[in-house]
């Protein structure tokens, strides 16, 4: 015995969400059906609209339902700085950290030959156009500090070097507020290699 | 800065799901928008249908999109036994445990005067009709072993006693497979009070 066919379909459909197993799906379905139908209907409407209407910004490729995202439309950003990130969530994290005032470009992934993800999938044509059109002075390669992120940064560097643009990569080192005791060895040795003169 | 308005609306809408905070909502939205639009569209369609079409079984009040649920339609259940539970999830748990072959009635909650949940909200009129129409021999009060579940069981017992129906309550005691060391005091003393003759 199980729930009714439609409730069972709902349990299955909820499992597309990350971290949702059978028990969580059941709890979610019961919440929506037993306690918050209006919230469920609202979620269904907005989810349907979002998967239909949200596309990529024509300039930076972040997620937006407009042609250009809010940040690309803003006149108050520095056009000479371009930060390349793997995902819209990375872009948001950098914005929330504050301090960076340049533009962005979102790859929506990283190079991964085994998964069949090559340069074409990362919108590098769009990146080319963007760099040609704008007077960009420095490109910050802010892909993740993972094997794939590193490889992608190296590939991008190879592509961009001939254009004479300054390239940089985020600093590696010990995270703020942490204790050295708990920092992994790889990070620690990178922090040693990248040590800075101490100015009091 | 945040995501685009529609993506932000999606993050808000996802928070109707239990256990979904801002970070989880973001991870879910990114999964759906970046990696599985078809799954997202499917979830939106089924969720919209479910909140619209799933109602209560006309007999036992469990969740179903039919007039009667599968279990009420089954001719192979014992009509003389009725088990009253608080939720469709409780009913499913009992079915999955196996062994019980009677019918069910789902209250969709428990008496809770402070939350304004009275007898009318628990479908007790439907329960009356059901008990009158069927030749029920025994009613098992399987509300939760919580303060509210107990109060609800007592109220139901008061209502059903005058009809001369046999009433029972699930046994309290130590859970199978546990260690006594970790069983709470309340459960242990109930298990002592309810001790059974030991037949080898």
From TrEMBL, chains A, B:
Keywords assigned by UniProt, alphabetized: DNA damage, DNA recombination, DNA repair, Metal-binding, Zinc, Zinc-finger
Keyword Zinc among record annotations: yes
Gene3D superfamilies reported for this sequence: 3.40.1360.10, 6.10.250.240, RecR Domain 1
Stretches annotated zinc finger (C4-type): 57-72
Highest taxon of source: Bacteria
Keyword DNA repair (UniProt): yes
Domain Toprim, chain residue ranges per copy: 80-175
Pfam family name, one: RecR_HhH
PANTHER family: RECOMBINATION PROTEIN RECR
Protein's job: May play a role in DNA repair. It seems to be involved in an RecBC-independent recombinational process of DNA repair. It may act with RecF and RecO.
Family, as annotated: Belongs to the RecR family.
Protein name: Recombination protein RecR
Organism, as annotated: Larsenimonas suaedae
